[in-house]
Structure formats: structure tokens, C-alpha cells
């Protein structure tokens, strides 16, 4: 028996306990790091498969290493509701990122099965093998295969040790061939929807004192790399009005990005990397490089901010007599969630006695890939410790896990394709 | 004969030609790098000594490797006017930095000797063996010995290859012992003054269209290293108002330094190094480090700016909820030039038909060390190519060298101890 219904918060307790057990598998001894198809990754997959079987699911490992558990409907012609998330991690990651969205549905299906409840559609729990992109620098690998968007060129990409993805797949007992991966693409006509449960990975729910949130859309990023070129000169002998200081220009640009990206509620703008190559304390910087990442709940808000930022940065460069080179390195569109599914989730949250909050997801999730072929929604669960994620301090409470499981149970019972 | 008086600008031509000849000696094949006591350094010293002898000077190499040429007065009891500069270079440096202040006086003394002119004081030209601090990370080594301030602990300091300074001295035929170095300290009562000719290493004279400048003081630096600590968090999921972004805080601080240090004519403030350790495009920076260098023509102006900057940076940190750690890494007092000698230089410049400009030296020079024991002045000569220095593009014209030599000649003729 997976869940002991005699204890308090039996579903939540089972979820949190399993997240801890699953964290025992790691590529590193002192930190939680599980990257695509390593021994620790395969051990984690085997553990998830075992829990799925115990919960009464039919289990398969597909050609990209996803662990797929099926709770079949009595009607073989029924459509399929997919739920899931990823079980790979960032380096030195947390126990709940991704994994909550696998473990929670398993516990809920176990509960359904013990009650003898069937659903009027097939429910599939997909434990996605790769989302974080650590080993092969290719994120959303696993969910891309389900929508027919797996980039076959990646099979020849090598990891830091020179091992190709194809060789890594074969070493893991997967076919490692294009046809098998192409065959994973689901027929959109057979899909009912996709729902993903995920920790928020941010501080909003914690700050509002709310356990659960309904995601309105998953923000796509625009990323740029900026290079400011001024004139390197002697720090002691170049009067202030005669300088073309690349770092001072970059500083003004960083503040302009911060200011512009503070002007809409879902908008965020980040300069995560800044540097003066070969800088010295006594040399006025001739060059400064920085990264820009801008996201918002909708593409129009984001793109308006990007346009303004590009215009303003160029104006700063002109005014200061420095050159600015801006290169766009990524542009991913926003994935809006289904209004019908958001409403349903909100009703389930209200029935569980919690106040629902609608919020965008600033982080990317597998739901963003599935949204290309079916309607999607996401249930966010409150993060503890300031909302920190991608970090060993990532945490959530048993009570919140319990509440999220009851909302998910309500959702799968009331959802109709 | 060193100088061919039949050509136009004979002194200037001799100076520029010799700077080119001297640049043939380098530690590196494709760049001008001459560091303390390397074979190239010793070859440069030998060349300088040869030119000094040819000009009629009595030449000695002292215990720290300085090449000292003496143009003795008829009166053995006369005081000594020292002039000179350094012949070591930065890595990939320029031909005139330091060396102009050696080559120009040699050419002028040659001219005096050919005319049979003696001076009512001893004139010594000191080619300082070390000022830039490249090999042993200890600048002003050579001039420090003349004022009795040589740090004997440096003798055991090692270079990048593990060679001690003492061993390097002995390999160069120098005694390499404390007593010999201590004996280099000059008796201040026997010194008349110190005058240094140097390229400006900045754009001020070039910008004003003036060939020569009279230095009012040599700025001392205050250097600090700043570490801003915020909270690293997810770039997609942390709303702008909830961030404690170390890089955005640093950007605001950099602009505050620039603004405050633009408020006095001789004041300069530089942030030459900036970095986000382990930064990533999708992570709000939790830490940002930068350097601060503040200089001015006088200590009061500089220290007032430092105090304001420290106060303002702390206010920015408090307002943004980040921690700021400011560590002072250097504090060197300003060295004021002698008003009497500045006046005399100015008269010489005016007699040569040029408009004199008084300006502070933002860069450090050997004169700042000699100022501890005698009155000093400096003659700045215009740099070409935007005023660039510490760079192979460093340049000056034959005409400016000629004019500077004629002003120096006038100075030594009219100077009285």
C-alpha cells in the first residue's frame, strides 16, 4: 500500500516522502544532480516505474527514456489526458522541481484505484526524461518527442565527455534511432488535454499566503547578448568628460532594462551576466558584455518591452559615444493556458477551501511544448524558503502537497474531454 | 656626434630616433615589454649607458640597476639637480612612456657639452630601472631606493618563474644585498630639486592643441574593492519588486561614482573591473563585484569624493536591500609640485613660444617618490593618437620633442638651487 490513510495528510506525506527517496539517486555524491541517461537517471526512472506499477498503472519506457504510466479507461476509444513533468534536474537542484508533477499524480491514481474508480478517459502520467538541458544543452527534449518536434540532429550531439546522445541512448537500452523517436509523436485528435502540477519556483504564492495557483500562461523568453565597446584608457589621466567608458554605459543600460521591465505586472527583465573582459582597476573599460532576458505573461507585453529596451539602449550608446552590439540569442513565444481548464482548476481549488490565484509562469515547463498540440493548464504549488528553486533549499510542505493532490483528484474526476 | 644640428628639429629627431632604437630590446618578440633585470632590460640599460657616455656624462649603474649619468659642476660643493624617469615598460607598452624623460635630458646635455657650457650645480640623469611593477608586483622600486624607502622584504619576493629579486639582481651583476641598496639613499641636503619630463599619457594637451604642460601635482589613488550581495533567484519567476539584484544595485553604484567624480575638474573615478561570479542569463545575480579607483589633483578633493561615494553606495545598498562590502586596497597621498619650479617651467615654455597649461598628473610617476625628499616639477609632452599610452600606439611628434628639449635646456640654464 502506497498511502496510509490513517495518518494525517496521507497523500501529501506520500508525495514528500517519495521526493526524498527519489533524491537518493544523483550523479554527484553531495548534491542532487540527475542528468539525461546517466546511471542515477536510469535508477530514478526505475524507481518511478516501480511506483507507477504499484499504483496500478501500465508502464512503458519510450524511445527517449520517458516513463509512461497509463490508467486506462473502460472505453478503449476514449481520448487521453496527459499529465506529468520531468525527473531530470539542474546541477545541485531541488527535490520537487519537475518531480512533484510525476509523484503527485501517481499517488492520486493509487487513491483512485484503491477506491475502484475509473475515469471516462485514459489518464497517462509521463515522467519526462529531459527538460533542464544540462547534459546535452538541449532542453525540453522529452516533451518535444511527444509533439513530433524532436530535433534528430541532437542524436549526434556530444556531452562534455564526447559521448553522443545516440550512444548514451543505446547504453541505456533505448533504440537510439530516428524512426523510434518519430513514432512517439501523439495524434492530437486522440489527446484530451495536458495538465502539469509544478512548484511555483518563485515567491508569489508564499508572499500572498496562498497554497495554490492557476497558471494563465507560460512566458517565453527573449534573450540577447549585449557588447558595449568604448575606448580603454588610463584611469588616472583621462578626464571624466573625455571618457568613453563601456562599463558606465552598460550600468546605465542595466538600469534602463530594470526600469522598463518594472512597468507591467507580469513583465520581468534580467541582466544575469556582466563582465569587463581583461579589466583592471586602473583602466577605463573599453569593453563590457552583458546578457538580457525579458519575459512576460503575453508576447505583446514582452515584445513592446524588448522594442523599448533596444531603442533606449541604442540611445544611451549614442549619447555616450560607445558602440552597442545586440544579438538576439533566443525568442520563444508564450504558451497561453486553456481558459476552460483554468476555470475548472479554479473551481477545484475553491472546493478544497483555498483562494485561487491566477499567475503567469515566468519559468518554462513541458506544458509549453504540449500546448502546441493540445489545450494545457498548470497547477502551481507554493514553494517555501523565499520561493527558492534550482537549489538544495527548494522545499514545500506536506499540507500543501496534500491540498494539491486533493485538487488534482477533483480535477481528474470532473474533467471531461 | 649624437645630434646633427644641420637638420630641422635636431634635438627632437635624436630623441625620437633613440626611443625607436631602444624599443628594439624587448622580453617578447612582437611587443615592447621590458621588465626588471631581464636580458632585454639589461641590454636597454647598456644602450642608455652608452648614449650617456657619448654625451659626456660620467656613468654608474647603482645597486638596484639604475643607470646614473652625472654632468658635474665646476664647483664640487654644488648641490645636485636630478632628472630622469624609468626605462622598464608595461606589457605591450609604448616607446615614450618613461624613456622620454631619460633620452631628452641626454640629448640636451650633449648639446650643452658641445657648446662647452657648464652648470652651477651637478646635473644627474637617472634612468630608473623599475617603475611599472610588472615582474615583481612592486612599483617605484628604483626611485624608492634614492629616498631610502626601498622595502628590503622585496628582495625575497619571487617572480612568476619563482626567481627571487635578490637572485635576479645577482644574475645581473648587482650586489643584491641590503647594505648596498640602503647606501643609495641621497642626503636631502645635497639635493637641489628633481625634474621629470614625461609624455602626458592622456588626451588633455592634444585636445587643447598645446604641446607642453606644467604638472601641478601627482594624484594619489584611493582604491577600493566592492562586493554587493543580494539574493540569487529565478529570472522568470521572481517579480521585479521582489528582487534583490546585486548587478542592478552595482549598476546604480557605478553611475553614482561616475556622477560624483565628475563634480571637480581634476577628480576622476573609475570602475575598471565588474563581474557577476558564476552568472547565468536566467538567474537574477546574487553577487556582483567591482573595483573603484578615485584620484584628484589634491587629497582634500579626492577624500571628499571618496567619503561621498562611500555614503552614497551604502544608501543605495540599504534602499535595495542588498549588502555592500567595501574594502580599501590602496591609499596614496598626492604629491604637489613646487610652485617656484612650476613658475620657472612656465616661463621657459612661454619663451619657447608655446602657451603653457597647468594640469595635474592623474598617473603616478617617479617624481611622486622624489617629492618626499626634495622639491619636484614635471614637464608633460603631448601624446598623439587620442592620448593613448601603455599601448604600442603611444606616440609623439618630433616637433613636440624638439620644443620640450629646448624648454628643458632653458630650464637647466636658468634653474638655481
Short description:
The structure is a homodimer of 417-residue chains. Chain A is an alpha+beta fold and 417 residues long.
Approximate helicity band of chain A: 25-40%
What is the CATH first-level class name of the largest domain in chain A? Alpha Beta
State which percent range the strand residues of chain A make up: 15-25%
The CATH architecture of the largest domain in chain A can be named as 3-Layer(aba) Sandwich
CATH superfamily of the largest domain in chain A: Zn peptidases
Question: What kind of oligomer do you see?
Answer: homodimer
**Structural class designation of chain A:** alpha+beta
C-alpha-based Rg of chain A, rounded? 24 Å
Q: What number of domains of chain A?
A: 2
SSE layout and pairing:
The structure is a homodimer of 417-residue chains.
Chain A: H1 10-22, H2 39-54, E1 58-61, E2 67-71, E3 80-86, H3 100-115, E4 122-128, H4 141-146, H5 165-171, H6 178-182, E5 191-199, H7 204-208, E6 212-218, E7 221-229, E8 233-234, H8 246-260, E9 268-270, E10 274-275, E11 283-284, E12 287-295, H9 299-320, E13 323-331, E14 335-336, H10 339-351, E15 357-361, H11 367-370, E16 376-381, H12 398-414
Parallel strand pairs in A: 3-4, 3-5, 5-16, 6-15
Antiparallel strand pairs in A: 1-2, 2-4, 6-14, 6-16, 7-12, 7-13, 8-11, 9-12, 10-12
Helix pairs in contact in A: 1-3, 1-12, 2-3, 3-12, 8-9, 10-12
Amino acid at each position: 500500500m502506497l498511502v496510509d490513510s490513517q495518518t494525517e495528510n496521507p497523500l501529501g506525506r506520500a508525495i514528500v516522502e517519495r521526493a526524498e527517496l527519489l533524491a537518493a539517486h544523483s550523479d554527484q555524491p553531495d548534491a542532487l544532480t540527475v542528468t539525461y541517461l546517466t546511471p542515477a537517471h536510469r535508477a530514478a526512472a526505475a524507481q518511478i516505474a516501480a511506483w507507477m506499477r504499484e499504483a496500478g498503472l501500465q508502464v512503458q519506457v519510450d524511445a527517449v527514456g520517458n516513463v509512461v504510466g497509463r490508467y486506462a479507461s473502460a472505453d478503449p476509444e476514449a481520448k487521453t489526458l496527459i499529465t506529468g513533468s520531468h525527473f531530470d534536474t539542474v546541477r545541485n537542484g531541488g527535490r520537487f522541481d519537475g518531480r512533484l508533477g510525476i509523484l503527485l499524480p501517481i499517488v492520486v491514481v493509487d487513491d483512485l484505484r484503491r477506491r475502484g474508480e475509473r475515469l471516462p478517459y485514459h489518464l497517462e502520467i509521463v515522467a519526462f526524461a529531459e527538460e533542464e538541458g544540462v547534459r546535452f544543452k538541449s532542453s525540453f527534449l522529452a516533451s518535444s518527442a511527444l509533439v513530433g518536434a524532436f530535433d534528430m540532429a541532437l542524436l549526434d550531439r556530444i556531452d562534455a565527455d564526447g559521448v553522443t546522445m545516440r550512444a548514451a541512448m543505446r547504453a541505456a537500452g533505448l533504440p537510439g534511432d530516428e524512426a523510434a523517436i518519430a513514432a512517439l509523436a501523439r495524434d492530437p485528435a486522440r489527446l484530451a488535454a495536458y495538465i502539469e502540477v509544478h512548484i511555483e519556483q518563485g515567491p508569489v504564492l508564499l508572499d500572498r499566503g496562498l497554497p495554490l495557483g492557476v497558471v494563465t500562461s507560460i512566458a517565453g523568453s527573449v534573450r540577447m547578448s549585449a557588447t558595449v565597446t568604448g575606448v580603454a584608457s588610463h584611469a588616472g589621466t583621462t578626464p571624466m568628460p573625455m571618457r568613453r567608458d563601456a562599463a558606465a554605459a552598460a550600468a546605465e543600460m542595466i538600469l534602463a532594462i530594470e526600469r522598463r521591465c518594472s512597468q507591467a505586472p507580469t513583465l520581468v527583465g534580467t541582466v544575469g551576466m556582466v563582465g569587463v573582459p581583461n579589466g583592471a582597476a586602473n583602466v577605463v573599460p573599453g569593453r563590457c558584455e552583458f546578457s538580457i532576458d525579458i519575459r512576460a505573461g503575453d508576447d505583446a507585453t514582452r515584445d513592446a518591452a524588448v522594442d523599448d529596451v533596444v531603442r533606449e539602449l541604442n540611445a544611451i550608446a549614442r549619447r555616450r559615444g560607445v558602440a552597442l552590439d545586440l544579438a538576439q540569442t533566443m525568442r520563444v513565444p508564450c504558451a497561453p493556458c486553456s481558459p476552460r481548464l483554468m476555470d475548472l482548476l479554479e473551481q477545484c481549488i475553491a472546493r478544497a477551501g483555498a483562494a485561487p490565484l491566477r499567475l503567469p509562469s515566468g519559468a518554462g515547463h513541458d506544458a509549453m511544448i504540449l500546448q502546441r498540440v493540445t489545450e494545457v493548464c498548470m497547477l502551481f504549488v507554493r514553494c517555501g524558503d523565499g520561493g527558492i528553486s534550482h537549489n538544495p533549499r527548494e522545499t514545500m510542505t506536506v499540507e500543501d502537497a496534500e491540498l494539491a493532490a486533493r485538487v488534482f483528484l477533483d480535477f481528474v474526476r470532473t474533467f471531461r474531454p
